[in-house]
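Thread: quick sanity check before group meeting

JM: Hey all, I'm pulling together slides for Thursday and realized we never actually wrote out the predicted structure for the chain we discussed last week. Dropping the sequence here so it's in one place. If anyone has concerns about the input, flag it before I start.
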Amino acid sequence: MEIKICGITNIDDAINACTCGADALGFIFFEKSPRYVSPETARHIIKRLPGDAVLVGVFVNHDIKTVKDIYEFCGLDLIQFHGDESPAYCRQFMKHALIKALSPRIEGDIMIIKDYPVKAIIIDSRDSGLYGGTGKKSNWQLAAIVKDKCPLILSGGLNPNNIMDAIKTVAPQAVDVNSGVEVAPGRKDPKKVKLIIDVVHAIKNNSLLKIFAKAV
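JM (edit): ok, ran it. Output follows.
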């Protein structure tokens, strides 16, 4: 079991997450997100990080060249597409470095998973035109089905109060936490970050599959 702390916007939150043992950090490059971070700021943060947390860039309907440029500029390890990117779009990138977010509402919505050439699928929730970070719980029942088809990262409204229920219900390979450990959009609560990482790592040794591993 692995954990990614997403929506990192500042060095203090990044260092705290690394110190607490986050397996991965997420930087959101979608300008309409309240957790947007510029490539320049992300690069500055990344250069000062301790440890070896995997660095994930989150993109929403960006053009291909922009994604590749930011990936190289910031020295990212993985790319996470969180918008309406098609399988054909995703084929322009390396499968072993790619994560795709989906927000299924019915079981038929997950049939497209097989078409995506990705390392893992992340199940999140959408609301009012937002592509994530809504604080609302995703569909755990559908997520459990996805887990049997593809490596799964569970997201959507996860926090220290429900993380154990989420893991028990879905048994994902990894979890992605954002608004559930914040004091305000883009500002993490250090105590909540430590608590949720400790909970996840308490069962980490039971997971053999490593999603958040550096691409080679």
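AS: nice. The mean pLDDT is 92. DSSP finds seven helices and ten strands in the chain.
JM: adding both to the slides.
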